[in-house]
Every structure is written in C-alpha cells, then in structure tokens.
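Folds vary. Our protein:
___
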Amino acid sequence: MVRSTVNKAVSEETPTTAARNGNGQTAPARKTATGKTAQKGTSVVTKKAAAATTATKATAEALAVREGEEAWTQAELDEVLDELHEQREHALQVLTVQEAELSGLMKDPGDGAGQDQADMGATSFERDHELTVLNSERDKLAQIERALVAIGEGGYGICESCGEPIGKMRLMAFPRATLCVTCKQREERR
C-alpha cells in the first residue's frame, strides 16, 4: 500500500511548483500532501545543486583506478555522473513523498474512537515502516552527495577505509560505493 502511494505520488506532476534537476534545468515538482513539504523538498534541491554542479567540473584522468585497469574516459565519467544525478532526483522525490506521508501519520496518533488495539498496532507498524524507508532514502542521498563531491574534488574511487582504489568496474555498477570489495566484505562480516 505504501509503495503504490509513493509510485502514484511520484508519477503525478503539478505545474504550480518547480525544482531544479541535476542538470540545472527546471523540472516539474511532484505532487505532495502539503505545500510545506513541497517547499522543503524544493529547498533541499536548491541546497544540493552546488554539490551536483561541482561534480561536473571533474576530469576523468584525475580519478583513481586499480592496478591493471584502464584509466577513466570522459564518457565513462559522464555515464556515472548521469546515473548519480538520476538516483539523486529519484531519492529527493521519494523523500518528499515519504515526509508528507509520515507527517500525516504523526498527526493522526490513532487513539480516536472506534480504533481497537489491532488498528493502533497497524498504524504504529506503518509509522515505523515509513521512518525506516525515510532514513534509508536519507542515507542513500548522503552517499550520492558524497560521491558527487568526491568526483568534483578528484577523490572519487578511493576506499574510505583502506585508501586503495575501489575499482572502476565496481563504481560503474554501483556509483555510490565508498568501500572497495575487500573492505565491504569485511564490514558485512561484522
């Protein structure tokens, strides 16, 4: 039920508000439950635009590669940048929708007349689920922003744990990766 609401709200467009996408173009904003949330989502887009434009100034030759890999080409870097910008826009849309839904759940505590324990439990479960999805999207957005800043500064592709190159193929498959395969496996075993 929550997923269908997110997909429906993300697919509906409203001409009254506009947001900046990663390319600096104005794109229609997504319909939300409250205008306050839409404004908040739009301001997030504006604040993050600086990081996104910084990333476009990067040159492919400055990025690290593993031993035996070919250097990054500008076309490969552009492909990764496009993917990151696309993921960023999607995450912002989902965040806007999720914040609106969570706001509605928080305003309706579910202790009104006619609600039994099962109804209150379902409402509590839904609220917890919305918080989990919201936090997951915020983490994803932070990873994307870190990757865009790292590209702009020339440090993209360096493992945050060991300092070795992550690997071009891993980054092309998962552009927001911050750890090399070895360090990620070590982290997951803990």
